[in-house]
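Re: weekly structure request thread

Next one in the queue (427 aa):
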Amino acid sequence: MRNSCLPGRRRRARAAAVAVALPLLAVLPSGPAGAARPAAKPAARGGWISQITWTSRPVAPGVTVRTGVSRSPANQVHEAIIDPKLVRIAVTHHGIIARRQATSSVARALGALVATNAGFFITAGSFGFPGVPDGLAVYDGQLESMNNGPRAALIISGGRPRIADVEAFAAVSRVRQSSYQVNGVNRIPGIVEDCGRPGSQPTSEPRQDVTCTVRSELVLFTSQFGASTPRGHGTQAVLNARGTVLSAGRQVGGKVPAGGWVIQGIGAAGAWLHRFAIRGRHLSVSARIADTAGHAIALAPGVSVGSAAPILVTGGRVAIDATAEGVTVPGDPSFGHAWASEPQPRTSAGITKSGELILVTVDGRQPGYSEGVTLAEEACLMLSLGAVSAMNLDGGGSTAMAIRGRLVSRPSDGTERADGDFVVVLP
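Done, posted below.
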């Protein structure tokens, strides 16, 4: 199904080159081979974007913040416009991975000019470790979480931001003997949040906010994990920073050595680990990430990646591939409806034609103050702000923006939620 972005007021001349009535792929599945479904009437709520009243203030060289207010429907929008040539941008967890923190407190601790919440994360202990990302996460060149198939990601590399669908790959190897694929980092073996892993049950297809299980896999725990690794019926190997196996045997849990790893395996993967993880011998851990165009992203210091879903804008056109990223399910119009097609608080990241990063929050679930937006409206909003590429970050009660450590958005929970990771802009 297609909707249309209704014309909206452009922030400045650079955005005028973006067409005002580009087709919008709504958050409903496309047909075979990506063919779009027949066009539908334009979204009735889309006209509010042109009615936003903006106020602007500079925060620091390279950072400008704008607040937008609309009345029908009521919405409160906060936008940070960031020049990566003048400031430093990063995605960070700020400390141990198995921990949740408020966006504003992280902003104050880091002295951030701007901070927003970033990717999806585990909230319930039954699914994993609260605070751990449930998608791809790279902090300062270290892979700390994997996704289940390609997902939208904000990539900071060489000091410049970009947005693309990205996937992580990792393996454990015994030199000149054998290697085995790693399917997860810093999560419980056998439990796959946001399905999309081959061989998982009840489905191997992408499913946002659905938990699947697998019978065989290797999971890697990093030294930044910060919690005791899980006990279970599988196999475990503890490695030091040089890759030497310190211990191997049953999955008894425990701490990860500084700079080292804990590797846990279940099923056939556990049998492989039992065979090749021998105390005193060496195992090597390798990881890489690449976008769907095949471009590798070096896991080097200063590189950071935060992922969520879905992509909103590509090449200056709205293009939401809802099915590929697990937001919707063909033949099931109820799946993801509230998440995608009803107004919600949203956090977005976008890149302009000139390479600026724009971070945007829309408060929601507060009638008369700010209702929030659908994914389709979020995409139209980002396009109206000059984004040539954009993605949806975590939203709902997680949506938060802090300027110089002060929360400027109004969380829908009534109080600020502790989130997983964050996009920060540093002097």
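The mean pLDDT is 90. The chain is about 10% helix and 40% strand.
Next request, please.
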